[in-house]
Amino acid sequence: MKAYDLIILGTGPAGLQAAIHAARAKVSVLVLGRQPRSSLYRAHIENYCCLAGITGEDLLLEGQRQAEKFGAAFLNEDVIEVSTREPSGFWIKTESGEELAAGALILSMGISRNKLNVPGEKELLGRGVSYCVDCDANFFRGLPVAVIGSGSAAASGALTLLFYASEVHLVPEKLDVSERLAEQIRASSIVLHEGGNVQAIAGQNEVEGLLLKDGHRLEVKGVFIELGAKGAIELATRLGVNLDAESFQYIVTDKKQATNIPGVYAAGDITGPPWQMAKAVGEGCVAGLEAAAYVKKLRSAVR
After folding, report:
1. Which one of 4, 39, 149, 297 has the minimum C-beta count within 10 Å?
2. Where are the chain's structural domains?
3. For every one of its 303 residues, what pLDDT tens digit does the chain have, with 9 covering 90 and above?
């Protein structure tokens, strides 16, 4: 198992700025995630101080180059599991099955804004439609379900549902996961509907089926919408990280970007609005410095 002083989840501006500062502080840093999934990747930068006329893609690539120059490593994979590790630190499993250890974590994966925007999605939310397999799988024991999405969240969610549902359908536009995860899907009993774009979720008071644009209807009682990587909130709650009391959508931090769990920090969109790069970069700076200081104290305590 590879071990790092600090692992940063997220390759957006918050994660990159954290990596730059932490790596400069001479701690070992690994950054996990896929840049094309950052909300900034396809943006055009116009309102960031002293910088304009650059694409989000170029900015993120330059941020990675800076972080690498100071010694940070990057792994282009999503995280599917995270937990505390005895006697201290954290354990992480990536979509390819690689297991990693860290003395501290920075959560900077942003938030999921992705919805299908199809008929029935909003109307049947909580009545068969869910955005969280880990939260709601138990409600569908012995029932047929469908998971919609092309990334690691959908694939790992479908595999999880095999332990609960009577039948699991996976509906990606095109499966976009590691080869190991794709092999697990194809070797399982999951019914794969690649290219089967969703037209509507059918049902009156609860989900009764899923309509695909190719004319097929899947007779399911549950529809899990998992677009993108494993949700930041799902991973955070597994660690026991506190969320805001009003909406339960954002991670609560102090001025040092520390959460209620020692060694876990958060930065960027996942800590709440405004959704601005300036905020993300500032929080990433603080989180990187504080996480580096934390792991250095851990080193001293061991000696």
Report:
1. 297
2. 2-112+231-302, 129-225
3. 899 999 999 999 999 999 999 999 999 999 999 888 777 887 778 788 988 888 889 999 999 999 999 999 999 998 989 999 877 799 999 999 999 999 999 999 987 656 788 999 999 988 999 887 876 888 999 999 999 998 888 998 999 999 999 999 999 999 988 899 999 999 999 999 998 789 999 999 999 999 999 889 999 999 999 876 556 777 888 899 999 887 777 899 999 999 999 999 999 999 988 888 999 999 999 999 999 999 999 888 765
Instruction: Tell me the fold of 2-112+231-302.
Output: FAD/NAD(P)-binding domain (3.50.50)
Look at the domain 129-225 and name its fold: FAD/NAD(P)-binding domain (3.50.50)
Three-class HEC string of the chain: CEEEEEEEECCCHHHHHHHHHHHHCCCCEEEECCHHHCCCCCCEECCECCECCEEHHHHHHHHHHHHHHCCCEEECCCEEEEEECCCCCEEEEECCCCEEEEEEEEECCCCCCCCCCCCCCCCCECCCEECCHHHHHHHHCCCEEEEECCCHHHHHHHHHHCCCCCEEEEECCCCCCCHHHHHHHHHCCCEECCCCCEEEEECCCCCCEEEECCCCEECCCEEEECCCCCCHHHHHHHHCCCECCCCCCCECCCCCCECCCCCEEECCHHHCCCCCHHHHHHHHHHHHHHHHHHHHHHHHHHC
Whole-number Å distance between alpha carbons of 244 and 286: 20
Amino acid at 125: L
- Euclidean distance between CA atoms 260 and 102, whole angstroms: 17
Q: Say if residue 204 is exposed, middle or buried (CB neighbours under 10 Å; 0-12, 13-18, 19+).
A: exposed
